[in-house]
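Reading a protein record of the kind used here takes little practice once its layout is understood. The reader may check this reading against the record printed directly beneath this paragraph.
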Amino acid sequence: VLDALVKLLCRSDISTEILWDGGWLLRQLLPYSEAEFKSHHLKLLKDSYRNCRSALVQETKGIWVDLLITVLCDQWKKCKRAIEASSPRKEPKCILLPFQKLNSEDIPAESSFTAGERMSELVKVFVLLHQLQIFSLGRALPEQPPIQPQIDIPEISRARAAGLDVSGPKPGTEKIGHLLAIEISHTLILVTAIAVHALPCRIAFERGKERHFHFLAVSVGTLGWVLLAEELPLKQNYGIVRVAAPLAGTNPRIDDKHARWLHLRIRPSTLPFLDAPKSGTPGETRIKSLVDGRWTLAFRDDESCKTALSMILEEINLQNMEVERRLKPVLDLEL
């Protein structure tokens, strides 16, 4: 039984629900089956864990890097609760039924939603294998994963120039001389300095309705945004941020034929998974169809477009490095 269970936990073609149930069962059996738990079982689990860890490292450069730590901490608590429970989460017959699949015919395979779903599933497997490694070493599971705390924003940064702190832009916060944030009709309006880094550009959100903005990309720790601000006529070098979107996943690209055009992909700000409805096809969960947004920014000249591209890539790199730094302890588990 133990041999089959370990092999099950090392498979990559079954749902995380079944893997978590298998993890619970292994934890129940291990104290009574230490003689049967051989070195090759431990090696199988270690190899599977290393492969999963390598995949997770790649997610620190992925579309949902800004939510990676949040998802990991959330799944850590859920997995710990699941495998330490006195009974399985479901009735045995439920475990044998097909896992509920998310279904939407309108979501393409390359969409940010698909990437987010894949990241979430990967985190669940990583957390399970990580906790099983700790348990197999005879250690107690900590309440939270070992993650480095966030650090203050560097003095020389675009975020600092815009008056942002580690919490990022939020309603009801005033930064004297730099940032004033208020909420009107559920729309966040920021007054922020745009003189240093922001670049003039044009964009049409509707056909025939082109608008003029100043473009700015900023990262604050593990978070980041691309901002479109309108310059204030009565306050030089300041503007109102009319549009803000996640920095991660923008996938910036200069147009092949128009060197002043910059294409961006705009994904949702959060993972849009929905709870399973009470009614519907058995074994299937319906979700809302989601389509990533697309921005095409037209800058004044080729050089401005290249500068905007470099700005985005620099801020994405800072964001990715901060996520890697904070995750380093949980990724450096000694095996």
The chain is about 40% helix and 20% strand. Residues 104 and 287 are 6 Å apart (CA to CA). The radius of gyration is 24 Å.
